[in-house]
């Protein structure tokens, strides 16, 4: 494997990790506030559909992105209503959202485009184009760093850079602001937050809304950045992989970046090498395609007990009279 091949795999890994990173940070905000969200998959899926459908209909990828975020926020509102206001089971609400999104995207897609639940291919301004970073071409000749900058970091779409910026921004919001302190406190001890006169319901709805926006960006990137149309069930379990990455990252933003990049790297390797010859054994294509999902199971089996979630996670808060 030469250096150019490694650069191409890293470039692909960064693209593939982007929707996972958005979804992982979305889950981080939600779960830090005590709301478990299995519905990341469904929110990403419905955002992907509406962003592609709107971008195709209007010819504007920006309107498509806004439509995707809006659709994701609607499902986030439903999840918030079920789990915060009505104090329902958060896991069941999340699973219901996944089923709802899976059925709605196909139903509306069939009615709208009559292409078996898909959208037509996006072209031109209807999808995100790559952005060349400053001095990428000039620095390409510099040993080691030059190709990394010009081949791996440069040339990605707008949302890839937004996802990377969201990591330090999430860290700052959660660990350096009053809002972040209150949000984390709501996930650990909501009664203490309520005693201080701060609205537990308001903070949890804010976290769920942020989760909706980030899932919307993840879905919009899938359909208009990574791909060029919506395809039935195109999220392909990424919402669940993001949840596994969140547990692996122990609910911390920087660890989330490393965990999602690891998943992206495995998927990039499986795409690059459909079957991998190790000399003494050849790994079949089915095994290579299953690699990210195998890692998900391994992480969940090995880290669930060691990673401690927010103490009030999954529990509806009932205000004392």
Automatic annotation (TrEMBL):
User: Topology with regard to the membrane?
Assistant: Multi-pass membrane protein
Which residues are listed as membrane-spanning? 12-30, 65-84, 91-113, 158-175, 205-231, 251-269
Task: Please name the GO terms that the record assigns under molecular function.
Answer: transmembrane transporter activity
* Keywords per UniProt: Cell membrane, Membrane, Transmembrane, Transmembrane helix
Checking InterPro entries in the record gives: ABC_transp_permease
Q: In the UniProt record, which is one GO cellular component term?
A: plasma membrane
One Pfam assignment: BPD_transp_2
Q: Where in the cell is it found?
A: Cell membrane
Name the chain's protein: Nucleoside ABC transporter membrane protein
Q: Which organism is it from?
A: Litoreibacter ascidiaceicola
Q: Give the source lineage, highest ranks first.
A: Bacteria, Pseudomonadati, Pseudomonadota, Alphaproteobacteria, Rhodobacterales
């Amino acid at each position: 494997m030469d250096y150019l091949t490694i650069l191409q795999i890293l470039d692909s890994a960064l693209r593939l990790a982007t929707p996972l990173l958005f979804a992982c940070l979305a889950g981080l905000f939600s779960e830090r506030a005590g709301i478990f969200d299995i519905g990341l998959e469904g929110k990403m899926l419905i955002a992907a559909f509406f962003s592609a459908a709107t971008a195709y209909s209007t010819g504007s990828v920006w309107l498509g992105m806004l439509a995707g975020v809006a659709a994701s926020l609607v499902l986030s509102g439903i999840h918030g209503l079920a789990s915060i206001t009505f104090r329902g089971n958060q896991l069941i609400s999340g699973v219901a959202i996944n089923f709802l999104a899976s059925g709605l995207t196909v139903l509306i897609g069939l009615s709208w485009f009559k292409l078996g639940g898909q959208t037509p291919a996006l072209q031109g301004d209807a999808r995100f184009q790559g952005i060349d970073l400053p001095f990428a071409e000039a620095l390409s000749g510099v040993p080691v760093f030059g190709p990394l900058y010009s081949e791996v970091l440069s040339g990605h779409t707008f949302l890839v850079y937004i996802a990377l910026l969201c990591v330090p921004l999430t860290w700052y919001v959660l660990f350096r602001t009053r809002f972040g302190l209150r949000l984390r406190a709501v996930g650990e001890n909501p009664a203490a937050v309520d005693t201080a006169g701060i609205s537990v319901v308001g903070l949890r709805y804010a976290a769920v809304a942020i989760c909706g926006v980030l899932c919307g960006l993840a879905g919009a990137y899938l359909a208009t950045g990574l791909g060029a149309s919506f395809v039935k069930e195109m999220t392909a379990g990424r919402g669940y992989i993001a949840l596994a990455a969140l547990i692996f990252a122990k609910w911390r933003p920087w660890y989330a970046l490393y965990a999602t990049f690891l998943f992206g790297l495995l998927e990039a390797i499986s795409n690059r090498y459909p079957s991998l010859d190790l000399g003494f054994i050849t790994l079949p294509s089915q095994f290579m395609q299953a690699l990210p999902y195998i890692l998900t199971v391994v992480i969940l089996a090995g880290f669930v007990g060691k990673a401690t979630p927010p103490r009030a996670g999954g529990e509806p808060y009932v205000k004392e009279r």
